Amino acid sequence: MNNDIGVIGMAVMGRNLALNIANHGYNVSIFNRTVKKTKDVVYNNPKKTIFPFFFIKDFLNSLKKPRCIFLMVQSGSSVDNVISSLIPYLNSGDIIIDGGNSFYKDTIRRYHELLKDNINFIGAGISGGEYGALTGPSIMPGGKKVVYNIIKPILKSISSKFDNEDCVSYIGPDGSGHYVKMVHNGIEYADMQLISETYSILKNILNLNNEEISNIFSFWNKGELKSYLIEITKNILLKKDGKHDLIDCILDSAVNKGTGKWTCKNALDLEESLTIITNSVFSRYLSSLKSQRTLASKILSGPKINSIIHNQEDFIEKLRQALYLGKIISYSQGFSQLGSASKKYFWNLKCGNIAKIFRSGCIIQAACLNKIVDIYKYDDIIINLLFSPYFQDISNKYHSSLREIVSYVIKQGISIPAFSSAITYYDGYRTKESSANLIQAQRDYFGAHTYKRYDKEGIYHTNWIE
Ligand code: 6PG
C-alpha cells in the first residue's frame, strides 16, 4: 500500500479531516486508539478512499515515503504519548503534523526533540470546528518551510477558499502556527463576549424577545458586521426546544479549554495591552461562579433597570456602531500581539497573510478581515491597525456611540466588560499625557526606582522625605 497520508485520532475533528482529505482524491490511512471508532468511520463512509488500521506498525507501513501523519488528538500529554508510540517505526524525513489546539511552547519543544531524530514536525493550527474540518477549515502551519512545501498540496486542497484563494499559508518556524491559532482563539473569545453583551443590552435595556434580537443580528449581518459568529448567533436565537426558545434553557456559565487564557498570559509576557480578550476570559470565569453570583444578586445593591429609550432605532444603530468599533479595537490588540511575538520570537509573521487565511473557514471569519488584508497590503509593518486610514475613520465616526452605549448601560447596572474595556483602551491609547507620571513618582518615593523627566535627559531619584 502507498497511501498519501495517515490520520490518527477519530474523534469528530480527526474523522472529518480524514473525510475531507479523502474527498479530495487522496488515499487516507486512519487509526484510533479504540478500534470501534476507526471501524465506524469506514462503516459510515464505505465508498471513501479511507483505509482502517488497528496497529500503529501496519498504519505506518501503509503510507508512502516520506510518511505524513496527521495527529488529531487531544492537546497535552496525548500528543506526546502518540508521538512516543510512533517513534520506533519512523524514518528520517517522515513528517508529523499536529492539527490539534496544542500550546505553542509544547510545539516548539516537540519540534526540537523530533529534529534530533530527523523527524519533521509541523504544528498546524486548524480552525472551523467540526463542519469546517469536513468542508474546508482555515489552516495555520508552522515548522520548516521545505517540509510545509511537501504537504502543501494536500493542505491547500482541503482548506477553505475565499475568492478562490486557499485559506492556508505558511506561518513561520516551529510553534508559530499554533501561536497564531492561539491568538485566533483569543480574538474568538472577544468577538463572542462582545456579541453576548450586545444580546444582553438588547434583551435587558430594550426588552426585546429572542426573535426580535435575531432579526437585528440578521440585519447587521448584511453590513460591516458580517461574520460567522453573528450568523450563528441569529440562528441560535431562533432555535426551539419544544415550546421554549433553547437559548433561555441554557445555563449562563461558560467554560473554556484554555486557549484564551494562554493568549492573555502571553500578552502579559510581551507587555501587550490585550484588554478586551483578557476581560472576555475573565468574564467566562465570572460566569462560572453561578452560586456566588446568585447570592451576591440578593445582597449587593445596584440600580434597577429603568430604561426609557425614546428612539429605539437610533439606539440600535448606536449599538451596532459600538459593537463594530469594539470588534475592530479587539482585532487591533490581537494583531498588535502577533507583531510583538513575531519580533520577540524571530518568526517573521506575515500579518497580511494571516488575515487572508482568517477570511474563510475559521470561527472569526468576518468582513472586516478583508479590510485588514488591504491595510497590510499597503503597510506590512504597521504598528497598530488603529493607525490605518480605515480603522481611524471607523474610530472617529463610532467612538461617541461606543462611549454613549457604555455609559448608558453601566448606569443601568449591566455588566459589559468587553465594551467598557474597548472604550477605555481606546481613550488610553489616544491619550498623549497619561497619569503614569504619578506612578513613576510613587515608585521612586517608596522604592528609589528612579524616573525620567520631560524637561531634561537622564535618570533621576529624589529624596522625597526631607
Ligand atoms: C476553532 C475553535 C476551536 C476551539 C473551540 C472551543 O477555531 O475551531 O477555536 O479550536 O476549540 O472554539 O474553545 P473554548 O472551549 O476554549 O471556548
From TrEMBL:
Catalytic residues, chain numbering: K181, E188
Keyword NADP included in the entry's annotation: yes
InterPro entries registered for this protein in UniProt: 6-PGluconate_DH-like_C_sf (IPR008927), 6PGD_dom2 (IPR013328), 6PGDH_C (IPR006114), 6PGDH_Gnd/GntZ (IPR006113), 6PGDH_NADP-bd (IPR006115), NAD(P)-bd_dom_sf (IPR036291), Pgluconate_DH (IPR006183)
Residues that hold substrate according to the record: N101, S127, G128, G129, H184, N185, Y189, K257, R284, R443, H449
Keywords: Gluconate utilization, NADP, Oxidoreductase, Pentose shunt
Keyword Oxidoreductase (UniProt): yes
Pathway: Carbohydrate degradation; pentose phosphate pathway; D-ribulose 5-phosphate from D-glucose 6-phosphate (oxidative stage): step 3/3
Domain 6-phosphogluconate dehydrogenase C-terminal span(s) in chain numbering: 177-465
Catalytic activity, reaction form: 6-phospho-D-gluconate + NADP(+) = D-ribulose 5-phosphate + CO2 + NADPH
Molecular function GO labels: NADP binding; phosphogluconate dehydrogenase (decarboxylating) activity
A biological-process GO annotation: D-gluconate metabolic process
EC number: 1.1.1.44
Assembly behavior: Homodimer.
PANTHER family (alphabetical): 6-PHOSPHOGLUCONATE DEHYDROGENASE
NCBIfam families, alphabetized: gnd, PRK09287.1
Summary of the function given for this chain in its UniProt record: Catalyzes the oxidative decarboxylation of 6-phosphogluconate to ribulose 5-phosphate and CO(2), with concomitant reduction of NADP to NADPH.
UniProt similarity note: Belongs to the 6-phosphogluconate dehydrogenase family.
Protein name: 6-phosphogluconate dehydrogenase, decarboxylating
